[in-house]
Amino acid sequence: MVSPLSLSKNVCVIGAGPSGLVAARELRKEGHNVVVLEQRCDVGGQWLYEPNVEGEDPLGKKKVLQVHSSIYASLRLISPREIMGFTDFPFLVKKGRDTRRFPGHRELWLYLKDFCEHFGLREMIRFNTSVECVRMVEHDGIGRDLKWMVKSKEKSKEETVVEEVFDAVVVATGHYSHPRLPAIKGMDTWKRKQLHSHIYRVPEPFRNEIVVVVGNSLSGQDISMELVEVAKEVHLSAKSLNITEGLSKVISKHDNLHLRPQIEALQEDGRVLFVDGSWLIADTILHCTGYSYTFPFLDTKGRVAVDDDRVGPLYEHTFPPSLAPSLSFVGIPRKVSIFPFAFIIYLLVRV
Predict the structure, then answer these.
(1) Which residues contact 275 (CB under 8 A, 6 or more apart)?
(2) What is its EC number (predicted)?
């Protein structure tokens, strides 16, 4: 039933990950006509594992990347399943599946498929469809009256661009796909292997190598623990050498795992120079340095920008004031469990 405060709108949701799925469900519940555009073959967003990363730019410097998911094979949840589900659709243990309280990534992907099937969301989704451009339709109205031109392309019809006009657009494309890279002297001329953790999947390709892992946050530590079983040496380069007691104990148990300060420079002969004056010759540098927000398809004429890794201006991390409610971003906050917070979308259908 359409909300008494608004007429039914035609809404485009970009992305069929957790945020996009719950946004689509809530919008449809309010009586809106919803189309979800998803570039991949199934729902899940980041949680749809992509084992094949061949052909992707190792450092992710291209404007548009072919690989969306940054999940590696062994990844498990760091939050318990009790808080990794939507409030009205709990992430319950299912017989014959991963029953651990902190399950592997596949279990969360299966949960999202269950959510999609339970609420009949699949009929709204166009899979294998990439969004080429989203821009305002020219007129002098305010956000409430704006319309949006959305250009999309289906993979099987590469030459055909579909143009549609919507009353509103919800951007739910995630923020763990476009690598953020450090600025290291000599990085562009270093001739050995460099990659970002975005395309790391398994440790075997690094067997018997000397690997420098840049960044000791969650992924840097996790991947280092895998590499230490196959690599000749693993050097974990961190901004601060003041580490947790737990990490210190882990390092002490491995003769081939070493903590290093930040990198000062890279040299063409393979040397990695650290700020304390020490150096080594490495085979590979693996950057575990996080991700940046990017919306290469979106043209807001400067009303929404990404500056110093901040998207804004956004009211409640969701609505750009001058374009609300016709444009919204769902899933922008990083240090939250996105599943409970995604219900903020209810605001969109009540303005």
Answers:
(1) 261, 262, 263, 264
(2) 1.-.-.-
Return the sign of the alpha-carbon dihedral for residues 23, 75, 78, 66: negative
CA atoms within 13 A on the CB side of 112: 23
Which two tokens mark 166? 């919507």
- By residue count, the chain amounts to 351
Q: Extract the tokens encoding 192.
A: 């050995």
The pLDDT, as a whole number, for residue 10 is: 97
Closest by CA position to 61, among listed 174, 178, 177 = 178
Plot region of 290 (φ>0 → left; ψ -120 to 50 → alpha; else → beta): left
- Which residues of the chain have a pLDDT value below 70? 1-6, 139-144, 336-351
Considering only CA atoms, give the Rg of the chain. Answer: 22
pLDDT recorded at residue 347: 45
CA 168/CA 325 separation, integer angstroms: 7
Per-residue DSSP letters for 49-97? -----TTS-TT--SSS-S------TT-B-SS-GGGSSBTTB-----TTS
The sign of the CA dihedral 172, 64, 36, 302 is positive
Digit-coded pLDDT (tens) for 110-141? 999 999 999 999 999 999 999 999 999 976 55
pLDDT score recorded for residue 20? 97
Q: Which residue has the tokens 């399943």?
A: 81
Contact residues for 317 (Cβ-Cβ < 8 A; gap 6+): 311, 329, 332, 333
CA atoms within 13 A on the CB side of 326: 19
Question: Which stretches within the chain are classed as H helix?
Answer: 18-29, 105-118, 218-227, 245-252, 338-341
Check residue 315 and report its DSSP letter: B
Of the candidates 183, 245, 239, 241, the one whose C-alpha atom is nearest the C-alpha of residue 215 is: 239
> How far is the first Cα of the chain from the last one, in angstroms, to the nearest whole number?
16
Instruction: State the Cα–Cα distance between residues 321 and 314, nearest whole angstrom.
Output: 7
